[in-house]
Structures are given as structure tokens and as C-alpha cells.
Amino acid sequence: MRFDEAYSGKVFIMSRPTVEESDAVIYGMPMDWTVSFRPGSRFGPNRIREASLGLEEYSPYMDKHMEEVSYFDAGDMPLPFGNPARSIEEIYAYVKQLLALKKFPLGLGGEHLVSWPIIQAMHEEYPDLKVIHIDAHADLREEYEGEVLSHSTPIRKTCELIGPENVYSFGIRSGMREEFDYAKTSGMHMFRYDVAEPLEKILPTLAGENVYVTIDIDVLDPAFAPGTGTAEAGGISSKELLRAIQLIAESNIKVVGADLVEVAPNYDPTEQTAIAASKFVREMLLGWVK
């Protein structure tokens, strides 16, 4: 992959013209090859970019203007359609290049399996890595109907890679009994239903740590984000997720990378999901990129 060629498609608002000028790189992973219910998240990254055109450039949450952070939108990766194994390899190689350039990687999905190769690359760069996972689903399956490469498996794979004690899941309200049993017995940290309140209690224990944050848009209640592949009733509000992003920004942890996944715009003709996602990306850029 090269970053020295101009991306001809839509870019996130106020993207710098070259990667050299940036501290962070936004990149899209248009993959939904393993979804078990409704496909369409491969269209998410571009809709998030389009929705960003309606954003204010100032954030009252962070008290910062987008001029204060430098980032480059590299566009979407050209992933091999229908081939999850090769797609994972290419995402891994892409993120390795970003880390070699000392850039903060901010990925847009795509299904949640795309987070797995990113976490692999991040762990090689930061062997002491911790992961904050914000989602409706546990994603702790070992396989889905015999397929080990599935959007329901990335957090189980992460636990096996970095140790379950280094994984913190928030907002969880869906999964198999076996997934919740694994969370109880493995030593991982799972917080059901809510995000901001338990996160506020946990963040001080992670002070000084290198942390990767992965956010699945379906942590929101479908009333706030209907445009996702596996919507789950009983979720949090957009306001609570904004508060969670702010809490992370105000904490003493070192966020070393992040992603936002599972926006599937075809199921939301109002575009409220993409609009919300673009605002979350703005806050992540302003709050987490140092």
C-alpha cells in the first residue's frame, strides 16, 4: 500500500493533503464478508465521510477545533471481495505500515472482524497492549457455524493473543451463554448494558497503559443507530457514547489506535447512524490523537 498518491474519493472533513503532514491516518476497511445477518457495512466508511461534511469544526465536548489535530484520510483499502483470509492479511500489512510511519491509525469498518488484524499489528508494536471494546455483542465465539473467521470472534481471538485480563468490554447485552461463561471464568473484564459509568471507574486502573479502542456502532440502541447489520434493543444513547469518548480523552491512558465499525447505511434512510458515527470520529480525533 502507498500513501503518497492522492485519494480521489470523498475524504473526512479537514483531512490534510498528505500523510507527511499528519499525526493520524483515517482508513476505510470496506469488508462485510462474514456477516451473519444483514450485509452492507462495506458501504459504511464512505457514508461516514459524506456525513462529516455537515459537522461543525469545533467540538464543545473537547473544547477544540479540528485545525488543532492533523490527520490524513487515506480512503478505503481495496480488499479482495469475499475473501476474509486475504483481507485480514492486507489489513494487517496496511496497519504495520502506518505504525512504521509513527501514525495514529483510525480505522472505519466494515464488519467487526476487521479489528482482529489491527489488534495483531498493534500488539506487535505494543506488547503490553490493553483493549477497550465497546459493543452490544460479546464477540467471544471461537467460531460461527464452523467458520473461525467471523465477525463474532474478534474479541475471543484478542483474549487469546494478549490475555483476557487485558481486555475490557463495555455495553455488552448479547451473546451465547458460553460467551458470558467465558467472560466470567477467563479473567477478562465485561460490563453489561452500560458504558460511561463502568468506564469511569475502570480508567484510573489503566493510567499510563497503551490502549487500543474498538467501537461497534451497534452499542447504541437502534433508536439512535438503526443503520447496522445486527441491531440490538436495549442499548445506550448517542449522548452516553460521546461521554465515554470524552472520559477516555480526559483519562491518563495512552490511546495508541482506534476503530469504529459496523455502520451499514442501507438500513437507515434518515442517515442518523452515519451522522452520529461521523461525530464520534471527530471526537476521537480531537480527544485521542496527541
Automatic annotation (TrEMBL):
Source species, domain of life: Bacteria
Record-level GO BP terms: putrescine biosynthetic process from arginine, via agmatine; spermidine biosynthetic process
A GO term for molecular function: agmatinase activity
Pathway, per record: Amine and polyamine biosynthesis; putrescine biosynthesis via agmatine pathway; putrescine from agmatine: step 1/1
UniProt keyword terms in alphabetical order: Hydrolase, Manganese, Metal-binding, Polyamine biosynthesis, Putrescine biosynthesis, Spermidine biosynthesis
Primary role: Catalyzes the formation of putrescine from agmatine.
Similarity section: Belongs to the arginase family. Agmatinase subfamily.
Protein name: Agmatinase
Source organism per UniProt: Paraliobacillus quinghaiensis
Gene giving rise to this polypeptide: speB
